[in-house]
């Protein structure tokens, strides 16, 4: 029986995902598989409408566990390692529910990649992020940096292993806010509960649309969104949302 390094706690429509592998939440293959399984579960659970990802031990995630490197002497080992590495971030990015990163400490390499895969990012004052692969003779993560930074910052971080603070991220409009360590989780959970209060089907379509419009020209992207709007307008929840707004009451959604 493998040790449990990823916890999922659910309340008020929010799934709180906590990485807890001492001392620094370094990612080995088993922990990655647990993260994938957790976010796949969140995608399918009707009682979860939004998720928050954070770390225990005063660290978000220090990156890949260098003691768990694949072996070139085992056929297929690198392919297995690379596949689960890719899918760890993809399980967050492709999660059908919005995911908020509560970055509460160091987030390096693959750990910073996890934060980059989330939809909304908050950070505590003690946060440091970077892609230090170049410092151990490797290269990887430019595709993750590209989702957050412009060309020059991306390449400087990638070529030098440069680290940025939470305030550097705020200055570059990468995160929403810099918070104290004690305020970080309450603030992100408050936002998650607000998101979770929206119509469930609309949230799923909104997440899908947000992912797709990143990849499409503006004209095509807007048409894509309009088709979702037409489909959603015919749902019971959309009628309930309009009625509740006119009647000045909280809506009661049924997910259909």
Count of DSSP-assigned helices: 10
N to C succession of SSEs: EEHEHEEHEEHHEHEHHHH
Structural class call reads alpha/beta
Q: Biggest sheet: strands side by side, in what order?
A: 1-2-3-4-6-9
Unreliable residue stretches:
none
**Content of β-strand:** 5-15%
Radius of gyration: 19 Å
Shape descriptor = globular
Helical percent range?
40-55%
Explain what the structure shows.
By secondary structure, the chain is of the alpha/beta class. The protein has helices at 29-44, 77-93, 110-117, 142-145, 151-160, 166-171, 181-196, 200-213, 218-233, 236-246, and strands at 6-11, 14-19, 50-55, 99-103, 107-108, 120-124, 128-130, 163-165, 178-179. The strands form two sheets. Strands 1-2-3-4-6-9 form a six-stranded mixed beta sheet, sandwiched between helices. A three-stranded mixed beta sheet has the order 5-7-8. Strand 2, helix 1 (29-44) and strand 3 form a beta-alpha-beta unit. Helix 2 (77-93) packs parallel to helix 3 (110-117) and helix 8 (200-213) packs antiparallel against helix 9 (218-233). It starts with 5 loop residues before the first strand and ends in a 10-residue tail after the last helix.
List the helices and strands and how they pair.
Blueprint: E1 6-11, E2 14-19, H1 29-44, E3 50-55, H2 77-93, E4 99-103, E5 107-108, H3 110-117, E6 120-124, E7 128-130, H4 142-145, H5 151-160, E8 163-165, H6 166-171, E9 178-179, H7 181-196, H8 200-213, H9 218-233, H10 236-246
Parallel strand pairs: 2-3, 3-4, 4-6, 5-7, 6-9
Antiparallel strand pairs: 1-2, 7-8
């Amino acid at each position: 029986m493998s040790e449990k390094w990823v916890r999922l706690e659910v309340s008020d429509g929010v799934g709180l995902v906590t990485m807890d592998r001492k001392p620094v939440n370094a990612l080995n293959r088993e922990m990655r598989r647990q993260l994938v399984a957790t976010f796949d579960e969140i995608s399918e659970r009707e009682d979860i409408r939004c998720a928050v990802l954070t770390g225990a031990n005063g660290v978000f995630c220090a990156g890949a566990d260098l003691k768990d490197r694949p072996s070139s002497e085992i056929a297929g080992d690198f392919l297995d390692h690379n596949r689960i590495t890719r899918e760890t971030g993809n399980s967050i990015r492709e999660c059908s529910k919005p995911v908020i990163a509560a970055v509460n400490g160091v987030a390096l390499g693959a750990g910073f990649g996890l934060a980059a895969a989330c939809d909304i990012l908050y950070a505590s004052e003690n946060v440091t992020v970077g892609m230090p692969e170049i410092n151990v003779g490797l290269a990887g993560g430019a595709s993750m940096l590209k989702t957050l930074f412009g060309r020059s910052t991306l390449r400087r971080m990638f070529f030098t292993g440069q680290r940025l603070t939470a305030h550097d991220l705020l200055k570059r409009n990468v995160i929403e806010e810099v918070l104290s360590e004690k305020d970080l989780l309450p603030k992100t959970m408050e936002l998650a509960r607000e998101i979770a209060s929206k119509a469930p089907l609309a949230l799923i379509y909104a997440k899908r649309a947000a992912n797709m419009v990143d990849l499409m020209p503006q004209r095509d992207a807007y048409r894509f969104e309009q088709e979702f709007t037409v489909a959603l307008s015919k749902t019971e929840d959309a009628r309930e949302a309009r009625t509740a707004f006119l009647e000045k009451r909280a809506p009661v959604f049924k997910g259909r």
